[in-house]
């Protein structure tokens, strides 16, 4: 039956009587599991996660990076544009780092002195991208006078940027908290089929490099566990994760430093430890945290990173230590202790083992990343010690520390971070560093070697070039000859070009793709994972309903310029215009779906 409306009558009728909650179709999936050295779905099919890290929720600004750029004629920094770009490039998941502090903010992080120990920034220079890239998001948080005349949250919102990250409060638009913004990123990622891995990157925002342990003087281990439980419980709720986008918890980023000299993280047996040593035993803390998470949300994978220091007998380190590569490796990449003291995730209340929820995780970086961080390259990058570089990497850098778990078909490995400039950056804002030709060559050999290894070339028998491979090597990983290209899951670091160690998949303009990096990774990207579709409501004012107030907002934006964003408020079909086609969509969402 066809109905005819006038706009005035429609708005009046809607405002008085019609409203409807957005309805979601929701599947009671049991989540991914581990089988041998692979991650599999409910039907036993191999699932390979090949994603990218998108930083921000772990920084003092408390929001994914890149939203501080002013809109241009060709590019608008809407978080949904970024997620669409991630999918278009072929990544199937996103690793989202977050800090304990930001998850406890009651205001936007940059305005909340209670959760941001750095305090609210009030100087212009603090929000100048050229001075402080991580702190330049002022235009998102409260509007910035240097961002194309955006003065307030309301002005910023009405320019159609990142509308879901704001709420209407007493007639004005106010930015949401970091946790609420993370909800929106997760919702949209899931709506387009991307999966999400949550990564507790640090306790104090921005302090990951100086924080070796998963607790501090101000935050106890139990509080850290409790925060994870809150998130795990939150994202089993259809309100916050209607598509089951969140699939894994990376419990703590890069446990590190020598526990004998720096209060660092150890991998230890449970017996014979002093109280002080037990507090530094990362594997024991990870077990406790993983069990607590699974008790409230058994759908999730538990990812446990290694330490930096450990030894093959999985006891607390003794002696003075040395720098010969037998004692330490990259931060979070030493899983030697797991051979003797593997992680035990226990059983459910019904007696079902949770061991199939365990994925070990490591990070791997080339010599330049260590040099640019003020350190000395790890021994295996030094050609004077290893003239056969890069063919030495499998035997020296990877297999002894973590690769043995995959090679022996013991457990899956997730390389949660790996990355490099792979070029000589010259232009601001990406011109953080100066690299010489030999360093760039070494990094290109490293990335090809690691990609080969993750694909199953354990001995690096294939030729390692300096240029990207045209296609991934077809190998059998594990004991299943019918499933080729299973391989190790990974997330490149990073997506936006904020890291001075690696740059990003996106170039310095935060829009175009850095093909120097992308061409190395592209042949190894896996298929998208199954997604759970939803009818996204046209809730213009963020009150949880689609009704007259939303129609009023929509009509006020009729035919106004969208500012270049396909996700401008009211542009429901993402074609860059607000017109009759969008009105039809709005009306179609007026009732429960």
Tell me what the structure shows.
The protein has 593 residues and is an alpha/beta fold. It has 2 domains: 7-23 and 540-588, no CATH class; 49-100 and 189-524, TIM Barrel, CATH 3.20.20.80. The chain is 25% helix and 10% strand. It contains 15 helices and 13 strands. The chain has helices spanning 7-17, 79-88, 100-103, 138-141, 153-158, 178-191, 221-234, 275-279, 282-296, 367-372, 393-407, 437-454, 515-521, 548-556, 580-588, and strands at residues 33-35, 38-40, 46-47, 50-53, 93-99, 166-169, 172-175, 195-202, 246-250, 301-305, 358-364, 413-418, 489-492. The chain has an 8-stranded parallel barrel with strand order 4-5-8-9-10-11-12-13. Helix 1 runs antiparallel to helix 14 and helix 7 runs parallel beside helix 9 (282-296). The model is unreliable at 1-28, 119-158, 319-325, 480-485 and 532-537 (pLDDT under 50).
Widest beta sheet: strand line-up: 4-5-8-9-10-11-12-13
Number of domains: 2
CATH class category of the largest domain: Alpha Beta
Rg, nearest Å: 24 Å
Low-confidence stretches: 1-28, 119-158, 319-325, 480-485, 532-537
Helix share bin: 10-25%
